[in-house]
Amino acid sequence: MAVPVVDPSLNPVTDADPVEAESTRRPRRRPARADLLALGAYVLLGVFVCLNYWGDVNGRVSSHLPTDHSWFEWLFAHGEYSVRHLENPLFTARQNAPDGVNMMANTSLLGVTLPLAPLTMLLGPQVMYSLYLGAALAATAGTGYWMLSRHLVRSRAAAFVGGAFLGFAPGIIHHANGQPNFVSNFLLPLIVVRVLTLAEPGRWRRNGLVLGALVAYQIFINEEMLLLTALACLVIVLAYAVQRPRAIRAAAGTFLAGLGVAGGLALVLTAYPIWFQFNGPQSYRGLQGGVFHNWGEDLVAFVTFARDTWAGDPAVEKTIGLTEQNTWFGWPLMLLSVVALVLLVRRSLAARIAAVLIVVFSVAAIGPWVRFNGVETGVRGPWSYVSDDLPLVEMMMPTRLTLVVAAAVGVLLALTWDAAHRQGRPVADRPRVPAQRAAEGAPAVSPEPAEPVGSRRRWLRPVGYAAVALAVLPLFPRPLPAQQIDPPPHFITAGGWRPYVPAGRTLVPVPIPSNVHGLPTLRWSALTGQEFPVPGGYFIGPNELGEGVFGAPNRPTSSLIYSTMDTGTVPELTDENRRQAVEDLRFWRASVVVLGAHPREAVLRELVTALLGSPQRVDDVWVWDVRALVG
């Protein structure tokens, strides 16, 4: 989310020097070497961030969000299954059988998993997860670099620094712990640039079509980040309009025409999926209790180093508490940002707009109550005046608004480095295009350069470089923390289950997958290509009131399994428990119940045996063939 300038008469770096503005608009050759070096560095950094996964890619998951990690592995398997079986990817019955899951109403990442389905078939979902995670980080930094180098700054080093922050900011790295949808931001810089060039004379139709296609595709990657980008673009345009009202009035017609084309095309391309999201099977309205509404940003978080950075400390999480670390920038970067804004806002339109974004979205992210160092102060925040029943608002998490702040800070870093790069340049020796020199009555070829009056400020260049480096180096990411996880049973991976699960029936793993329990058993489905459906799962679906809840509503038998896991003891069972177990198995359309290696294996086997009778030991699992029992 950057701040390109829509008025072609202005320099994107500074609006105080018409000579510089004229030379900025002149077409020039772009050295490919700098671009390739930047992209190569981003790729290496992406590999470094995922280094702990590659040590055992098939046996490790995020130690911060292991359930989310497994969910996204399952999503890659879903994309492969949908393509291989030519099934509707917007819905699946391979999880939460027999009701299924509305994939458009979940973070399904269809824009990634479907086109990458052939690679998932070849490499498997675990490899694809780690491969894509690093690639998405690098790609976001790459498109950020392109946006900055082509539209905002002259220095390729400045664009590199800004792009690196856009792709690898502390908040983005935090989400990389199991949530690749929030690091898949590579289309957002392209969307912002296209929005802010809609007013380009004579090209509104083409620009609108490109924008509409980008928006439609982003909907299938992450709708929440698209919403944040749209809000950021709205603030950018309004801030620009206040400062350049004549330019806005002159370009309003062209801008609105292009916006209409973009909106029309995006609507045509996504009308059915969006309808399916809100009206298809297993759709829902809002989340029960507005669970995300209270997640505001702690004020101390802005000056705190994030856990997964070189200067970060995991213990700080226990102090600040409920936060996603979206703005854990550290005090050096915050200090640099304040100083840079003070120095740049007078001459740089882009810096002024970045300042507006930082202030607006920082305040909006506070949430319903102001929190300071993990403690609610009792001071009302902006979200206390917003109803959590409003459409879209009910699904938003206030702290994530600060992802816009992170993007604005990335742009500000690029502007700061670029400003330092220009310090000490001879003012009288700045290039002037032939048309301008002819208008001034001067020859087209520049005479000998005048005295370099700006050279006296050349010392500011290394000072600026050092200030940016000292602010961002403590934020260099560490490899994401990973933990070992047991592989699926050989009975599952070798296909020993096939004789027990005929078409139309399900395999019931113990424990039944949920957002709290059953992490390994959810992976059974993912790592076998979703060949058998399972009950339960990790998703958001409707409760009896149509509100969104995490996971399937518990049935008596699943609740009994979870309570036994939590307590480590089998409760006293009744005939009603046994009758209900059979009833639940019929509801799930079960044909076999399977228990593999598990820390609670002994007590779980005792429980299921008491409910269903004695099991068979088949390969490395316990099997209860329930086909005769459920009919």
**Molecular shape:** elongated
Low-confidence sequence ranges? 1-14, 16-27, 427-454
**End-to-end separation:** 57 Å
Q: In which range does the helix fraction lie? A: 40-55%
What kind of sheet is the major sheet?
A: 4 strands, mixed
Helix-and-strand structural type: alpha+beta
Whole-number mean pLDDT: 87
What percent of residues are in strands?
5-15%
Count of β-strands:
12
Strand order of the largest sheet: 7-10-12-11
Protein architecture, described:
Helix content is 50%, strand content 7%. The chain folds into two domains: 51-412, no CATH class; 490-629, no CATH class. It is elongated and about 85 Å long. Helix 12 packs across helix 16. It has 25 helices and twelve strands. It is of the alpha+beta class. The strands form five sheets. The chain has a four-stranded mixed β-sheet with strand order 7-10-12-11. The protein has a two-stranded antiparallel sheet with strand order 1-6. Strands 2-3 form a two-stranded antiparallel sheet. Mean pLDDT is 87; it is low at 1-14, 16-27 and 427-454.
